[in-house]
């Protein structure tokens, strides 16, 4: 069932599964709306193997505040805890 006060969800099944696991509406929607939502395979590179710019771009994409003041380790921590 779609709620009228939430944004469009690309992968409704994944969104609902994440909500059932206790994820916030915002985080569940963000994950369910990624381009590779629902795909398996573990093909993403580890945060430690990415450049600071790549981490910054990902932090921007998911809406992490104060990212411009963060170093690489802080960006990794923020992305993991977001």
From TrEMBL:
Domain of life where this protein originates: Bacteria
Signal peptide: none
Pfam name, any one: DUF7218
Positions with biased composition (Basic and acidic residues): 16-29
Region (Disordered): 1-51
Listed InterPro entries: DUF7218 (IPR055642), Rho_N_sf (IPR036269)
Name listed for the protein in its UniProt record: Rho termination factor
Organism lineage: Bacteria, Pseudomonadati, Bacteroidota, Flavobacteriia, Flavobacteriales
């Amino acid at each position: 069932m779609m709620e009228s006060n939430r944004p469009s969800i690309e992968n409704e099944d994944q969104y609902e599964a994440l909500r059932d696991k206790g994820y916030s509406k915002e985080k569940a929607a963000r994950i369910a709306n990624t381009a590779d939502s629902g795909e398996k395979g573990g093909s993403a590179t580890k945060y430690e193997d990415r450049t600071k710019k790549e981490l910054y771009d990902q932090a921007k994409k998911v809406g992490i505040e104060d990212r411009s003041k963060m170093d690489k380790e802080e960006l990794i921590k923020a992305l993991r805890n977001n």
